[in-house]
Amino acid sequence: MSAIIAENLTKKFGETLVLSKVNLKIDLGESYGILGPNGAGKSTLIRLLLGLLKPSSGYVKIYGLDMKREEEKVKALSKIGYIPENPSFPLQFNAFKLLCFYGRLYGLGESGLKERIIEILRVVNLKDKMSVKIGHYSRGMLKRLAIAQALLSNPEIIIMDEPTSGVSLDGVLAFKKYIKEKMNQGITIFLSTNDLEEASELCSRVGILSNGRIIGEWEYGKSGESLRDFYIRVMNIEKD
């Protein structure tokens, strides 16, 4: 069974075509990236995958569950951890209180929840700030907290939208190390980024998105060229 399938996925806002007939098939345990410049449609694609937007045409299935059907969408979302590009949290909470709330929301038992929260805050280098109100966090700290929230429930699929933008080098390195460990455990990864190095390091396949269309797909060890060379080549063809 595929973890994620998108078929002829299209999205219009009024008369503006943002995404056009995107097809994806991502296997269980695969790490897949979408790479493209700002405005290519990456964030819109993620919102469609999560069921936050309804497609103008086409469909998305997660583990065979149709994201257009509310009951099936709820089941699918229970398997997903999502890291948004611009996270937002209640500013009066501290990180520990926030993750306790999410842990109960995810149905995590009280037994071991505190230890799990401390473990995940250590991964994102926020353990020493877990009692500080979120309103005092920098943008980078908010991003790291979003990573912690997404990983808390040990999701089967992690969907990430520019997860390391605004994060310090130490935070990026710790995050990548953890993600690689999860990949080795068979977690499915979907990464949206405009960072070539990040996509090359974390993804076994990468789709190139430009003007709402996937114009090429690179596969590690099979494409015969580096991701950077492949990206430059297909983008130059697109410009011509």
Sheet/helix structural class: alpha/beta
Principal-axes geometry comes out as: globular
Reported for the largest beta sheet, the result is: 6 strands, mixed
Radius of gyration: 18 Å
Q: What's the structural domain tally?
A: 2
Q: How much strand content do the residues show? A: 25-35%
Q: By CATH's scheme, which homologous superfamily of the largest domain applies?
A: P-loop containing nucleotide triphosphate hydrolases
Calculate the mean pLDDT score and round it.
91
What is the fold-level CATH name, i.e. the topology of the largest domain?
Rossmann fold
Level-2 CATH architecture of the largest domain? 3-Layer(aba) Sandwich
Distance between the termini: 38 Å
For the record, the CATH class of the largest domain is: Alpha Beta
Explain what the structure shows.
With about 240 residues, the protein is α/β, with parallel strands linked by helices. It has two domains: about 1-80 and about 155-240, P-loop containing nucleotide triphosphate hydrolases (Rossmann fold); about 85-155, no CATH class. It has eight helices and ten strands. The chain has helices at about 40-50, 70-75, 95-105, 115-125, 140-150, 170-185, 195-200, 225-240; strands spanning about 1-15, 15-25, 30-35, 55-60, 65, 80-85, 155-160, 190-195, 205-210, 215-220. The strands form two sheets. The chain has a six-stranded mixed beta sheet, with helices on both faces. It has a four-stranded antiparallel beta sheet with strand order 2-1-4-5, with helices on one face. α3 (about 95-105) packs across α4 (about 115-125). The longest helix is centred in the C-terminal third of the chain and has 16 residues, at about 170-185. The chain is globular and about 55 Å long. The termini are far apart.
